[in-house]
Design a protein that fits this description.
By secondary structure, this protein is an alpha/beta fold. It has two domains: 155 residues, Medium-chain alcohol dehydrogenases, catalytic domain (Quinone Oxidoreductase, Chain A, domain 1, Alpha-Beta Complex); 129 residues, NAD(P)-binding Rossmann-like Domain (Rossmann fold). Helices cover 27% and strands 27% of the residues. Strands 3, 4, 5, 6, 7, 14 and 15 form a seven-stranded mixed beta sheet that branches. It has a six-stranded parallel beta sheet with strand order 10-9-8-11-12-13, with helices on both faces. The protein has a two-stranded antiparallel sheet with strand order 1-2. Helix 4 links the parallel strand 8 and strand 9. Helix 3 crosses helix 4. The chain is globular and about 60 Å long. The two termini are 18 Å apart.
Length: 323
């Protein structure tokens, strides 16, 4: 990755990874930027690590742009409060925090500093280092808002998680188990042992068999794949179940078919959520949730991290180490 260099932490200046135009991983460049200043109700966080998510490379490639913003990708961050803006009472300089600030507006997680609303953060879980903590917010909140807030998952229900070994999937498996569900996951065969370690009751190799031909009477489906998986997912649900799609918006035909059977269906876009973060923290600190980090890259190698992530073959999360 080409770019400028400069003194880390120099007054008013920080390093960040930006893209001047949409494109492949090679458009990511290490650049110098003016350090942000926290406004009222905001905090300035010295970023120690930044998590990587599929939405990052989709934004970089120009495939998705959910809201106006800058040219520095990334939302998952973990770090230390460097300064607080007017009116902030939740945090003080020196506090360790993690969060998903600003989503879906680009606030620039791939940088040494981020300024964002204080209530988009929570105290970093005790026992997690910054790398692991940075891997949790976006994927963890997506799984929480899907299973708990939307599906209102109950003890004993049957849950199907597609792409169960991925960033959202491996956390959704654990969240569902923590709520007493029977969990089925789809993944390649080489990831089945990993999923069973996380608590999956049943695993299906989607490359070898048709999951729709093997399952029925499922209460909740978390679909992290989209596309033609939506029809198969709908077919395995019981009447009155819940289908939550994450990467693609459902078609009008699918919505009508779901409604005819009393199935709640829809596309979920994760939101910043302090209460959700606190719930995830509680699960982590009680030993019921662990985040798996597949690989860690220095900030300057964000392009290499994106290249690996776009293969779709990783388990859990990829993280940039910033500080």
């Amino acid at each position: 990755m080409a770019g400028t260099t400069g003194a880390v932490g120099a007054a008013g200046v920080m390093l960040a990874v930006a893209f001047a135009e949409p494109g492949g991983p090679e458009v990511l460049r290490l650049v110098e930027r003016e350090r942000p200043v926290p406004g009222p109700t905001e905090i300035l966080v010295r970023v120690h690590a930044a998590g990587i998510n599929p939405i990052d490379w989709k934004t970089r490639a120009g495939v998705v742009r959910l809201a106006p913003g800058g040219d520095v990708p990334g939302w998952d961050v973990s770090g230390v409060v460097a300064a607080v803006g007017l009116g902030v009472t939740l945090f003080r300089p020196g506090d360790e925090v993690y969060g998903m600030p600003g989503f879906p507006r680009l606030v620039g997680g791939y940088a040494e500093y981020v300024a964002a609303p204080a209530r988009h953060f929570a105290p970093k879980p005790v026992g997690l280092d910054h790398v692991a903590a940075a891997a949790l917010p976006l994927a963890g909140l997506t799984a929480w808002q899907a299973l708990v807030d939307t599906a209102e998952l109950q003890f004993g229900q049957r849950v199907l998680v597609h792409a169960a070994a991925g960033g959202v999937g491996h956390l959704a498996v654990q969240l569902a188990k923590a709520r007493g569900a029977y969990v089925i996951g789809t993944a390649r065969a080489e990831k089945h042992a990993f999923l069973r370690e996380l608590g999956a009751d049943e695993v299906i190799d989607y490359t070898a068999v048709d999951f729709a031909a093997m399952l029925s009477d499922v209460d909740v489906v978390i679909d992290s794949v989209g596309g033609n998986y939506q029809e198969g997912s709908l077919s395995v649900l019981r009447d009155g179940g819940t289908l939550i799609t994450l990467p693609t918006v459902e078609t009008s035909a699918l919505a009508a078919a779901a409604a005819a059977r009393g199935i709640r269906s829809g596309f979920l876009l994760v939101e910043p959520d302090r209460h959700g973060l606190l719930a995830l923290t509680d699960l982590v600190e009680s030993g019921r949730l662990r985040v798996h980090v597949d690989a860690v890259f220095p900030l300057a190698e964000a392009a290499r991290a994106h290249t690996l992530g776009e293969t779709g073959r990783t388990k859990g999360k990829l993280v940039l180490k910033v500080a």
